[in-house]
């Protein structure tokens, strides 16, 4: 079962037909899929990313446009674009080949020191937010004011009640309402990665080494970016907050954004993407812990 209506069926044979002849001899194998793209490992050093649907190509187009510009301002490794494929009768959307970055997803078995990890992540966010953003589009979600999302998030909260229980949803709704009650942030617009969850944070030798999947990259208010700390244990959250000197108001807004991301994912993907729902429920646990 697919995640979205109109998904494009892809397999190794189709991707092989799409690839330029210079890569014809490289091994090709499935490498998993996210909510936006299906991926295939090409040789040892490359990955092919193909949008799941024609109407979900915007994420990849943003990576194609902005990754080269962002890379020059970032210390941590990020994906490097190698090739852009045009729509064709075989595959009706743009697709791309990028460098494969070795590393393990951030988690209890891979991170050696969560406080150091939180400080490293804060350093990445500080560098990203400092890059000039002339010409980039403002975020429609997770980067603006909370209020325009209230109808959507309130609906997601209601849909979560039979799934995770009234008690948790009551607590999450209170956190969401607390964020809504605050004045709109007066912080300036900055670049946002937009999806700094652990699966997009790669670890080598116990430390944060690379950040991947810039499909949600946009420009907006920084509060939403900080929501990522509720995907991490308390030691990482505290180190991140200290490194960026985040005040309580900013953290209250960020926590509300974390609620928005969690309940949206649970309600939308409950039947179709259990692994993603598990990520969202882990986020809920951390949100309610602090």
From TrEMBL:
SUPFAM superfamilies assigned to the protein according to its UniProt record, in alphabetical order: Protein kinase-like (PK-like)
Domain Aminoglycoside phosphotransferase: 28-244
InterPro entries in UniProt: AGP_Transferase, Aminoglycoside_PTrfase, Kinase-like_dom_sf
Annotated Pfam families: APH
Protein name: Phosphotransferase
